[in-house]
Amino acid sequence: MNGTNSPRVDDNELALLTDLYQLTMTQAYWKESMQERATFSLFFRKMPPNRRFMLACGQQHAAALLSRLRFGDEAIDRLAGTGLFDPGFLDWLGDWRFEGDIWALTEGTPVFANEPLLEVDAPIAHAQLLESLMMNLVQLETVLASKAVRLVMAARGRPVVDFGMRRMHGVDAAVRGVRAYRTAGLAGTSNVLGGLRHDLAINGTMAHSYILAHDDEREAFRAFARHYPGTTLLVDTHDTLEGVRKVIEIMRDEPKLGVKAIRLDSGDLGELAKGARALLDEAGHDDITIVASSGLDEHKIAALIEDGAPIDAFGVGTQMGVSADAPVIDLSYKLVEYAGTPRVKHSPGKINLPCRKQIYRQVDAQGRYVGDIIALRDESGISGEPLLRPLVRAGKLDDDEMARADDARERVTDAIERFPEDIRHLAEGESAYPVELSPGLERLQSRT
Amino acid sequence: MNGTNSPRVDDNELALLTDLYQLTMTQAYWKESMQERATFSLFFRKMPPNRRFMLACGQQHAAALLSRLRFGDEAIDRLAGTGLFDPGFLDWLGDWRFEGDIWALTEGTPVFANEPLLEVDAPIAHAQLLESLMMNLVQLETVLASKAVRLVMAARGRPVVDFGMRRMHGVDAAVRGVRAYRTAGLAGTSNVLGGLRHDLAINGTMAHSYILAHDDEREAFRAFARHYPGTTLLVDTHDTLEGVRKVIEIMRDEPKLGVKAIRLDSGDLGELAKGARALLDEAGHDDITIVASSGLDEHKIAALIEDGAPIDAFGVGTQMGVSADAPVIDLSYKLVEYAGTPRVKHSPGKINLPCRKQIYRQVDAQGRYVGDIIALRDESGISGEPLLRPLVRAGKLDDDEMARADDARERVTDAIERFPEDIRHLAEGESAYPVELSPGLERLQSRT
């Protein structure tokens, strides 16, 4: 098993991370000389029950990776070993480079059901080869960003920090997820590699084990604060308010330790924060802030704030790390056009929108978003801001679009605030924000 | 962004995938010369609401990786860049090799709340450095195996195949998850890299896009079956039973195509399977089997079988791929002993079991499991099969234990069948299977 216990997936193996049928269908297209251009649309059919919008994320990130996807020699050898593929096809696959176009929402754009997050226009085999990995990459970041932004909204300006690496689904989710968190507006992460890679501040406090390994809590606080002046001390190992008193004592003895914050990680966080705040203030430490963690989600954070709990920052892990109340979206990557003609599967009760499309976000005179129109991409006369932008052209990544994705974090808050207030509600329910079809798309859809 | 869009995490970066406090606490232990041995216990406090047992998975896999974890030069440089660490400590970290012991359940062992999945005994800094990544790795495989085994149980001997790669959380979950699926007894996967790496059969059918890209469904079937004699054809793109009739026609014209199966992927799967079966049988094709997919979970599979649906194999994706009804377990890695003395955090309403432990699984005369006893590891006089086995000793992996993990798949079904019937029920609820504390552990716990 030694060969397989590393979670490393090299770039030259990544093309094998696909569903087998993508490769067998691609070989079939190759054998049948089917090389016409196809359009595939990536979208989800319905909002998850606990989301009023999704924050599209991962499209630029995935496109950057997929536009340079290759089947390396070792990948080709392993496919040859399956006995399913002709040598001629494997030669073609070894030379394959993505030659198509990708139009995509910029990361950090709020998106609703049936709106394409991206569309791929390419010779059919090229578009098919991207499907499985594109879906995996875009879904992960979109699911995590869409959950994280709810925590940011709930905290109403107070910093929210990711503590969830240990309970995320594997190594890649833990690293790449931090990118989604950055876009969503988190203030920091405890995850060292994720923070370093994706340029989010790395934060850390201490664990109960550090306190327990010392015979005396006060000595543990003093030792840690001497190693790290200006640190955050975890006060709830034995008795929270006793812990706060010990922090006050070590600060009285050695003010230069400059303890910056205390952290509560169990019990009734609201009551304990009030008690801790009173003790700290009474001792003249109104500059020491209070960080709370322990099974928090957006509803608990909103309730704590509503209740006036004097908590200055929140650490969140488990619920956010897997987006526990909506860990998956029903993402589809559907063929919508081939050889210039619309193609849609007949699915009773399901909407399948044919052809290449554009989304127009309507803006009123005050700059507020008042509704989306999904239209045919080349349909004229539709007002509003077009949301799908060319990201890859003939296999080449657009550098400006990539740079826009890097700045996504700066635009998210503004974008969300321009929507009607009900998309920002945390309670279960649907937003009344209207998403409509254009006349052209409506006509085409009823025809196909 | 080009430097960071690959999901590759090299082995020499992997040590940075941790929470910052693990590194700051470790430096604090180093500065304080705290080198006594500590025991940390990995367990979960309560069963998720929809699980009657969890299938422990990933411990051997994680131990193999963690026993050779290193902070490479680049990792050390990046840590130096944070300004938090002393040069002397970074030298120590660069030379660090795990020197401790790990006792663990063999993968594929059913496990219940408060039972350790593994325990690490090591100088405290060593045990602390494993925490975050160990939790991430073990949780993922345990969560996925525990969901997958429910689908296997629901299918009552019919093959269950993983189609979920596209909706799993990132690259690592998609690859490593297949290992958990293999342990849980899945028959195959559509995931090429996952199947190749973790030795599970790779299966594939075709997508609606292939049918839609052809002008005629019958011609699409014929072309695909000629490329792949003995294949599975997807019959529901336009009208399922019409699709079945077309399969019968192409088989009448060219029997050597040897179509092996048809796949249903939408609509009322039970009714359509009955209709398809009748058409196939009437045409003399009782050897063509029926594969069903489309939003399946264990409850839908059980209901289809209960209803007599003539479905021979199931393809499952979304619900299984993220373990949607229980995507996370409340896994803890707690210090339980340091310098030879028990250490536990005081947590009202929570059980924290001190010291090194062993789990004994009691067997009756018929070989049935009748209850577990969690005991102190060196407590004598407890009958039953000891479940925690030495896997790493002084940093060295035990090859026999690793080999046992490779065979886990073969033991899972037998193990599950030896439990009382109620652990195999799929409905929400708790099993009455008793998990008790030994007299020695009970005494120690009430004392600490």
From TrEMBL, chains A, B:
Pathway the protein contributes to: Cofactor biosynthesis; NAD(+) biosynthesis; nicotinate D-ribonucleotide from nicotinate: step 1/1
Nicotinate/nicotinamide phosphoribosyltransferase domain ranges (all copies): 160-322
Claim: Ligase is one of the keywords in the record: yes
UniProt EC number: 6.3.4.21
Database matches in InterPro entries: Aldolase_TIM (IPR013785), N/Namide_PRibTrfase (IPR041525), NAPRTase_N (IPR040727), Nic_PRibTrfase-Fam (IPR007229), Nic_PRibTrfase_pncB (IPR006405), Nicotinate_pribotase-like_C (IPR036068)
Top class in the EC scheme: ligase
Function field: Catalyzes the first step in the biosynthesis of NAD from nicotinic acid, the ATP-dependent synthesis of beta-nicotinate D-ribonucleotide from nicotinate and 5-phospho-D-ribose 1-phosphate.
Name the UniProt record assigns to this protein: Nicotinate phosphoribosyltransferase
Originating organism: Halomonas tibetensis
